[in-house]
Amino acid sequence: LATVVIGNLVGLNLFLALLL
């Protein structure tokens, strides 16, 4: 479960990086 949460945070960071 922890790996899924970490993966989600990384995914959000990449998504926000693309927006910025």
UniProtKB/TrEMBL annotation:
Keywords for the protein's UniProt record, in alphabetical order: Ion channel, Ion transport, Transport
Source species, domain of life: Eukaryota
UniProt key word Ion transport: yes
Keyword Ion transport: yes
Biological process (GO), any one: monoatomic ion transmembrane transport
Protein's recorded name: Voltage-gated sodium channel
